[in-house]
Design a protein that fits this description.
The complex is a heterodimer of chains A (403) and B (382). Chain A has 403 residues and is α/β, with parallel strands linked by helices. Chain A has 12 helices and 14 strands. In chain A, the strands form 3 sheets. Chain A has a 6-stranded parallel beta sheet with strand order 2-1-3-4-8-7, with helices on both faces. A 6-stranded mixed beta sheet of chain A has the order 10-11-9-12-13-14. In chain A, strands 5-6 form a two-stranded antiparallel sheet. In chain A, a hairpin with a 5-residue loop joins strand 5 and strand 6. In chain A, helix 1 packs across helix 6, helix 9 crosses helix 12 and helix 11 runs antiparallel to helix 12. By secondary structure, chain B is α/β, with parallel strands linked by helices. Classes of the chains: A alpha/beta (403), B alpha/beta (382). At the A-B interface, helix 3, strand 6, helix 9 and strand 10 of A face strand 1, helix 1, helix 2, strand 3 and strand 9 of B.
């Protein structure tokens, strides 16, 4: 039996977590472990959604506690078998005491830290492993604090095997000694989060960052940074063209596609135009926890009356921009008695026979970046909530593209 | 086309905003000045907005630290807040008990998501009520206020900050994913003018003790580190001087006074919305994000000449007597909540099932007004 049950891992394109999984599998094979010799314990975070891809035993625990949970298993696991803990830098920040205790007891297990230097799943915030100068969504000017240095920590508490790896290419040979260590072994894979780390630090060099983790920097006492709040409301939206009253007084729209197509941001922008054109609007989002993969659905209600309930039972219109998007709204499409479906042309074969009152309008787009822009444009040409020019000019003004 | 419907008009000030931003701005205007954050879905927007606007925002390494840092700021006289969801809140429980016992003002915004445990992080829920009811060891009530729409995100948030400050207690501001992440149109004219808390100090330092109390059982506070007088705080049973008194009447008396402080002052933080029909027969009772469906359902029912009462409770714990006064007017009560264990029903009525109590519950998504209407019609005709 293979260790992995799929070649397609559930991570964003370009995410270093892919290589950690592939190299772990290669190292396990070369170390002659059988699939059911391994108990893979994962933490909360993007790395943790790997469980479904492994044929080993898998345990998906709580945020920051996977090392402690793995220790609980390692106490009684036969020595020929192995606990492997996958954890992110966020999880180690939260549960660093468990790492210290695991090393102190020297339990037979291997901890692999996926260090992408920020909290990816929750929106790119700085962690205890964010290097100095590294930009995150909560340290826009660059982090000013020193990161934890696992090399020093493991040396201090006497962890028998520690290695820091740059998350490039084949590094399985460095994982093999970790898996063969009699007691506790710790591997830190320094990698990059394409959704936040790369975007905010486009010129970074991973090697330089890894070197700087252990660089001595003069430490200054902590100083509180204070912001002086600005007066006024930060959330005003001007109503620009209320005179252009739409023939619609109420419309419920679903926009259903994939992560990376800008569905949530685009839906918000479309909602904002609705407000500018004199509608009350509500916008809701539905998506899995990981930022860059899976489906993404935006829900909009446009109404000339104040909206109380923001949910949508049956939509009046659906824009479908990907196969994953189609799968999310298949049920709604079947339920629709009337309304409008705007669908990317290549997806047309998926459409079942539908009710007579439902009109279907295909559209084309040359890539992921333009699929939402074109879909909404087609929709507005069919359902005249407001001029499609308003959409096109706002997406241009806000520099909107999917990524 | 309904020509009488116009939507917001030109020149009217409106925003297209999620509940998170309103909560953060309202907190700030009321006088909260520190946000301690640890990332957790679905509360992250609150952290982001606070980072942009709060005088002090700190990134804690975990939720246990979060509450301890907040307690430290509170001991220094600051007014800290945080936002989290169940997994993070669970880690905060011991610290919240500490802050309750030390009598430290702070607000914890608890954004509910579907459990148990880590459950579904991006799915809303109303499943933490019973946890909150019993979160303080000994069964002492913790003030819990619950947001039912965007105007609550503004006005009730401000009240939560004031209650925390005036009563010197942690307060939980309860909400759900769909309230803090859904954007909606808000008219600026619907937002009240928030008055900033005026901070007060003891009028005299003569015979000062940290837990000497005024007529409303609220202790005098001076920050640790002040130049005038020694202050003592402890989470253990203590006397008025803040010294440990674990097994004597002086200590027990102080603990009873903390209980008295929260219950005696309940009338100052009782918030609810009630609409009484001409002939009370059936009452729709709800809270939080589900209240939106109930308000809509009430309108739908009125169009069919079914006139029901509506009670949207906003002070969840302790339970104000007003609620029971209202409830006893009705023959049928329908409690609408986004869980399948009837949590608020249990808070009001315990585990005993009563013929007049009915529920509409669900997990995994918002309860729709249609479901509420169906239930009312079923009971209306029975």
């Amino acid at each position: 039996m293979e260790f992995l049950n799929t070649k397609k891992l559930p991570y964003c394109k370009g995410c270093g977590h892919h290589l950690v999984a592939y190299n772990t599998v290669k190292a396990l094979k070369e170390s002659r472990f059988k699939v059911l010799d391994i108990v893979l314990v994962t933490d909360i975070g993007c790395h943790g959604i790997i469980d479904k891809c492994f044929n080993t035993h898998t345990v998906h625990g709580l945020h920051g506690r996977a090392i402690a949970l793995g220790m609980g298993i390692a106490f009684t696991l036969p020595r020929r078998k192995r606990v492997i803990v996958f954890v992110g830098d966020g999880g180690v920040t939260l549960g660093i005491s468990h790492l210290l205790e695991g090393g102190r007891l020297n339990l037979p297990m291997t901890v692999i830290v996926h260090n992408n230097m920020l909290y990816g799943m929750t929106g790119g915030q700085a962690s205890g492993f964010t290097p100095c100068g590294f930009k995150t969504t909560t340290t826009k000017e660059g982090n000013t604090l020193l990161p934890y240095d696992l090399y020093k920590i493991s040396k201090e508490i006497g962890i028998p095997y520690f290695t820091r790896i740059l998350g490039y290419g084949d590094f399985s040979h460095k994982l093999i000694p970790a898996l063969k260590t009699e007691g506790f072994s710790l591997v830190e894979v320094v990698e990059v989060c394409p959704s936040y780390g790369l975007k905010l630090n486009p010129t970074m060099k991973l090697k330089k960052i890894a070197q700087e983790i252990t660089t001595k920097i003069e430490r200054k006492p902590f100083t509180l940074k204070k912001i002086h709040p600005t007066p006024g409301y930060s959330f005003l939206t001007p109503i620009v063209k209320p005179s252009l009253v739409s023939s619609y007084s109420f419309f419920k729209l679903l926009i259903s596609g994939s992560a990376g197509q800008g569905i949530q941001r685009g839906t918000s922008l479309l909602g904002e135009i609705g407000v500018r054109y004199g509608f009350y609007v509500s916008k809701k989002g539905k998506y899995p926890v990981t930022v860059g993969v899976g489906f993404s659905v935006g829900e909009l209600i446009f109404s000339k009356e104040e909206i109380k309930f923001t949910g949508i039972d049956t939509p009046d219109g659906i824009i479908i921009t990907s196969k994953e998007g189609w799968e999310q709204v298949e049920g709604e499409v079947e339920k629709m008695r009337k309304g409008v479906i705007v669908i990317e042309k290549k997806l047309l074969p998926l459409m079942p026979s539908i009710n007579r009152g439902v009109r279907i309008y295909p559209f084309t787009a040359k890539d992921h970046n333009t699929v939402l822009i074109n879909g909404v444009k087609e929709f507005l040409s069919r359902v005249k909530l407001f001029p499609s020019n308003a959409w096109l000019s706002l997406v241009k003004h806000r520099n909107f593209c999917s990524t | 086309m309904n020509s009488h419907l116009t939507g917001p008009t030109e020149g009217e000030k409106v925003g297209f905003v999620d509940g998170s931003l309103l909560i953060i701005e309202a907190s700030l205007r009321t006088g909260a000045n520190v946000f301690v954050g640890y990332p957790i879905t679905p509360s992250n927007l609150l952290y982001f907005y606070a980072k942009k606007s709060f005088p002090i925002t700190l990134a804690a390494p975990d939720e246990i630290t979060t509450i301890q840092w907040m307690a430290g700021f509170s001991l220094r006289g600051y007014l800290p807040i945080t936002a989290t969801s169940f997994p993070g809140f669970a880690l905060m429980v011991e610290g919240i008990n500490m802050a309750y016992m030390m009598e430290l003002p702070m607000v914890i915004i608890l954004v509910q998501r579907l459990g148990p445990s880590t459950g579904s992080a991006t799915c809303g829920a109303q499943g933490d009520l019973l946890l909150l009811q019993g979160v303080i060891s000994g069964g002492y009530p913790l003030p819990v206020l619950c947001l039912s729409n965007l105007t609550d995100c503004w006005a009730l948030t401000s009240e939560a900050i004031k209650v925390a400050y005036k009563l010197r207690t942690p307060v939980v501001l309860l909400t759900s994913k769909e309230m803090v992440m859904t954007q909606q149109t808000i008219k600026i004219s619907s937002l009240i003018t928030i008055k900033r808390i005026k901070k007060s100090s003891p009028s005299t330092l003569k015979n000062y003790s940290p837990y000497n109390r005024n007529k409303n059982y609220i202790p005098n506070f001076l920050p640790v580190g002040n130049d005038e007088i020694q202050t003592r705080f402890t989470a253990s049973t203590h006397n008025a001087q803040g010294l440990i008194a674990t097994s004597n009447e002086e200590g027990f008396r102080n603990t009873r006074l903390i209980f008295k402080k929260i219950t005696h002052n309940l009338k100052y933080y009782t918030y609810y919305e009630y609409v009484e029909p001409t002939s009370p027969f059936l009452l729709l009772l709800s809270y939080g994000v589900t209240a939106q469906a109930v308000r809509e359902a009430k309108i739908m029912l009125a169009k069919e000449k079914i006139e029901v009462g509506m009670l949207i409770v906003k002070t969840l714990t302790p339970t104000p007597d007003d609620y029971f006064e209202i409830i006893k007017k009705y023959q049928k009560i329908v409690i609408v909540e986004e869980n399948i264990t009837q949590q608020y029903q249990k808070i009001l009525f315990g585990n005993k099932e009563e013929d007049k109590i009915h529920c509409v519950g669900r997990i995994g998504g918002l309860i729709s007004p249609t479901k509420v209407v169906e239930k009312v019609k079923e009971l209306w005709n029975s």
